[in-house]
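Sequence in, structure out.
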Amino acid sequence: MRHHFTALFALLIVAGCAAGAGVVVKGAGPDDLLKLREGSGLNYNIIVGLPDGTRLTRHNCMTNNGKSWCRVSLAAKPGVSGYVSADYLSAP
């Protein structure tokens, strides 16, 4: 039984990292916004600030200078896309 649980857990992790996965902003805090940026790093321009709970579609993720960044688009406005730190994304 334990083997089945481990396999199911691994499948859920892989599914959550898949392109096109729905995620939400979590951990930015009540008085801050997660910055949606033009590129995968802090040196890129900010497109918009996203409050906790914002629904996003994750397209792909990469590592830049030891930090994970994901290309995302707004679920409500798919034409608005950019990069956010993966640290602030969570399953809905």
